[in-house]
Amino acid sequence: AQSVIKLTTLVPDGSIWHRILIEQATEVRRSAGGAVEIRIYPGGVAGDDPDLVRKMRIGQFHAAALSVQGLTEIDEAFRVFQIPSFFESPEESFHVLDELTPLLRQRLDEKGFVLINWGYGGWAHLYSKRPLRSAAELRARKMFMWGGEERSIRIWRANGLQPLGLASTDIMMALQTGMIEVLTTTPLAALSLQWFRLVPYQLDPGFAPLIGATVMTKRAWNALPANARDGFIRSGRVAETRFRREIPVHEERAIAAMVERGLQRTSIDAQARREWDVLVDGIAAGTRGELVPADVYDQAVRSRARYRASSRTAQ
Amino acid sequence: MRHAAAANGPAGPADRADGPRGSIRRLHETGAGVERLLAGLALGLMAVLPLVDMGTRWVAGAGVPAARPLVQHLMLWVALLGAGLAAREGRLLALATPQLITRAGPRRVLRVLTGMFLTAACALLFRSALALVALEREAGTPLVLGIPVWVAQAIMPAGFALVGLRAIVRTSDDVPGRALAALAGAAGVWLATGPAWLEAVPAWPGVVAVIIMALLGLPIFAALGAVAALLFLGDGIPLAALPAESYRLAVSPTLAAIPLFTLTGFLLAEGNAAHRLLRVFQALFGWLPGGTAVVMVLIFAFFTVLTGGSGVTILALGGLAFHTLRADGYRDGFTMGLLTSSASLGLLLPPALPLILYGIVAQVSIEDLFIGGLLPGLLLIGMTAGWGIREGLRSGTARPPFRAREAFAALRDAKWDLFLPVFILVAIFGGFATLVEAAALTVAYAFVMQAIIHRDIARPRDLGRVLTRASVVLGGVLVILAAAMGLTSYLVDARVPMAAVEWMQQRVHSPLVFLLLLNLLLLAVGCMMDIFSATVVVVPLLVPLGLAYGIDPVHLGIIFVANLELGYLTPPVGMNLFLAAYRFERPLGEVMRSVLPLLALFAAGVLLITYVPWLTTGLLEATGRR
Ligand code: NA
Ligand code: NA
Asked: Average pLDDT in the B251-263 region?
C-alpha cells in the first residue's frame, strides 16, 4: 500500500520554498516507485512552528520544514543561530552550520527527529522607523521581540536594549502606533508583509541568518522504505544548494524593490563601531550557557574563527 | 444556590439522618467552592497581569515578560474551570429541544441518552488531553518562572474529567441511569486509545448519531468534540491532536481579550449601569416618535458590544426593557421582536468579540476589522431604530417631552458609563497598549467606575460573584471553541479547504455569484451553529475561497459576522430566541413570530453590507489602511 508522509510548514503557499518542497516531494515519490506520497500543508494551516513540533511529537504529522524558531523548540543548540551579529555573512553562517551538522544531527536524533536537509529563509536585518547609526540609537528605541522569549528579553535588557515581547499578530499594529520602532526580519518578509513601509530604514550588514531545516520523526523515518529515504536525502541535498543559491538572489531583488519604494539603507558610523561591537558581544556572551548550551556555543565560536582565518588567508 | 446554602449551614436532623450522604454532599460543595475560587482568581489575574506589565513598562521602562505567557495559559484555566462549573449548574450550551418534550417517559430516556453521550465525549476528551500532557511532560518545554508547559496544560484532562463526572451525576437520579453513563464513559476512555480495528470501521454512523444527539440537546461542545474525535480515530490519527489544537487556540496571544471584554460586560451588568443609561438615553431620545424603542435598541447594542451577544444582554436587561416599553404603550409582540433582535446588534462594533475571534482565526488585523465594521454596525442599528420609530408613529406611543434639566442631570449621572466606549477606542488605537492590554484597561475602568464611583460593587464578595458568573458563561463558550478547533484541525488535515476552493472555482466564476452563495451558506450555518464555533470551523474554509475570488479579507469578515448575526434569530440554534422565550416567559413559537419582520430587515441590511463593499472598506481607505 502507498504510505503517506504529511509535511507541514509555515512557508507561504506558492513561495520559492514551497516550490522547492514540491519538487522534493516529486523526487521522493519517483525514488520510491510511487509507494510514498508526501502531502504538503503550507502556509501555517496547522499552526506556528512550536505547534508543528508538538503535532509531530503527537504523530499527527510526520515531517515539517521548520524555521529556527521551531528547531529551538526541539533543541536549544539552534539558538546559536539567533545571536545578533554573531555571523558576519551568510557564507560564514553556512560554514559554521555545516561544521556543526554532525553535532546538531545527533542532538536532533536524541530528541526523536531525523534531519533531512537544512533550509534557509534569508539574512535578517534590523528595520527601523528612524535611521540607526550607533548602539546608543538602538538602545533608545523599543524593539520587537517574540512574546514568549522571556530569557532573551532579560539578556537584551541587561545590555541596555528595550525589547518588547509581542505576538507576530501584534507587529503591524505596534508599528503603526509606534509601540515598537525597530523590527528584526528578512528582506523577503519585510517586502511581502509590507512592514518596510512603516520601518523604512534597513541597517546593513544584516543581523542573523534565518536558518531552517526539514525534519522527520524517527518513527516515520524508520517506517519508510530504503529507496524513499535515499530519495529524501538526495533531493534534500539539491534543495539545500538551491536555497543557499536562490534565496540571496530573491533577497537582492526584494531589497531593490523596497529601495525603489523608499527604503533607505544605513550602517553603523565608523566612530560608533567599537560601542556597537561591545553591545553585540555583550549579548552573545549573555546567551552562552543561558540560552545556548555552552559546548555548542564554544564549538560555533571555534568554527567561526577557522572560517575567518581561512578567508583572511584567501584574501 | 439554595441547595448550597443548606449544605453549608449547621447540620440539621435531616442531615444527620443522611449520614455519609450528607458528608459527600458537603465535600462536593467544598469542591465546587474551590473551583469557583480558582476560576475567579484565574480570571481576575488575567485582568491584573497585563496591567502590572504595562505599569512597570511605563514606570521602569521594562515590563514583566512572564506576564504574557501566564495570561495566555490562565485562559486555559478559566475555560476549563468555567466549563466544570457550567456543567455543575447544567448550563453547558445546548439546543433546548428537550424542553419541547412534555411527556415524562421519553424525557427521562432522552436525559439518560444525552448523559451517556456527554460522559463518553468527556471521557474521549479527557483521555486525549491526558495523552497530550504526557507527551508535553516528556518534551519538558518550559513555560515561565520555572513552570513547565505540561503543568499549565494539566487543567485540560482535569477539567474534562470534572465535566464528565458531573455528567454522570446529572444523567439520572437513580443508580441504573448513572451506571449506564459511567459505562459510556469507560467506553469513551477505551475508544480514545485508538484500538487498531477502528481504522477499518467507517466514522460516519458514529458522526450521524452524535449529530442527532446534538439536535436532541447534547451540549454543543461535546458534540463537536465527539465528531472530531471520531473522524480522527477513523483516520488513525492519535487523539492528542485534538487537545493540541484546543491548546493552540487557547494560548493564541489575542484571545485573552475575549474573556476580559466579557468581564467588563458583567461588571456593568452588576448594579445600576443599565438604569443610568436608560435614563440618559430616555432623556435625550425619548421625545422622538418611538423614542423609548430607539433607546432600547441603543442600550442593547451598547451591552452586546461588550458581552459578545452571549445572551447576557437579554438576561440582564430584558425584564427592565420589556416593562418600560409596555408602560409606554408598545405592543408585546413588537417589544419582544425588537428586544430579541436588538440583543444581537452591536456584534460589528469594536470591541465585539466575534470580530476579535474572526481576526485570530483568519489572521486578519483586528483593528482593521473594528474600523471596517463601524459603518455596517451603525447601519444595522439605524435600521432597527427606524423600525422602532415606525412603530411609534403608527401606534402613537407615549412621547415624554424633552426637558433640558433632566437631560443634563442624567448625562452627569451617566458620564462615566458613556465615556467607556471612548475609553475603549483610545485604549485600542492609542498605540500604548496591545489589544489584550486594552481589554485589561477596560476591565480596570469598569471596576473603578462600579466599585468606587457608583459603589455598585461595594464588597469583595460582590466582585467574587461577578468573577464567578463571568467565568461560568465564559467556560461554556470557550469549551465550545476548544472542541470546535479540534474539528477544524481535522478538516485541515483532510485538506477540505483546498478541495472546497478547487470545487468552487471549477463551477463558479463570478465573485458576485460567489457572494450570493456565501450568503446562503452562512444563513444555513447560522441556523445550525452558534457564532463562536461557526467562526472556528467555517472561517478556515472561507478565507482561501475569499482570496480566490478577490474579496477583501476584512470585508469577508464583516460579511461573515453580519450573516451570523441573523443566526442568533434563526431556529433551531437561534440562541437569542431561547433566551428571550425564557426571559419573557413566552412560548418559543410566539417569540419566533415576533422577530420575523426584523429578520427580514436584518437580511436586507446584510445584503447591503455584502454587495456594497464601500460600507466596509470606505473608512479603511479614509484612514490609510487600504
Ligand atoms: Na489546524
Ligand atoms: Na441560529
From this structure: 84
Query: Within 13 Å, how many C-alpha atoms sit on residue B374's CB side?
Result: 14
Whether residue A143 contacts residue A182, with contact meaning beta carbons closer than 8 Å, is answered with: yes
* Closest to A196 (Cα-Cα) out of A145, A255, A117: A255
Q: What is the distance in A from the centroid of ligand 2 to the CA of B527?
A: 4
The DSSP string of B380-439 is HHHHHHHHHHHHHHHHT---PPP-HHHHHHHHHHTHHHHHHHHHHHHHHHSSSS-HHHHH
pLDDT per residue over B505-545, tens digit each? 888 888 888 998 888 888 878 776 777 778 888 888 888 88
Q: Are B497 and B69 in contact (CB under 8 A)?
A: no
- Please report the ipTM that was assigned to this predicted complex: 0.85
Tell me the pairing of strands A113-128 and A36-41: unpaired
Q: Is A60–B363 a contact, with Cβ atoms under 8 angstroms apart?
A: no
Q: Could you tell me which of B333, B277, B337 has the C-alpha nearest to residue B306?
A: B277
Phi, psi of B480 (to 5 degrees): -65, -45
Residue B311 has pLDDT above 70, yes or no: no
- What DSSP string runs through B118-143? HHHHHHHHHHHHHHHHHHHHHHT-EE
Would you mind telling me the total number of residues written for chain B in this entry?
626
- Taking one residue from A and the other from B, the number of pairs with CB-CB distance under 8 angstroms is 96
C-alpha cell at B467: 468573577
Q: Taking 50 as the threshold, does the pLDDT of residue A291 lie above it?
A: yes
Partner residue facing B253 (CB), from A55, A147, A178: A147
Task: Say yes or no for a CB contact (<8 Å) between B360 and A169.
Answer: yes
Distance (Å, rounded) from C-alpha B318 to C-alpha B326? 12
What nine digits make up the cell of B24?
459527600
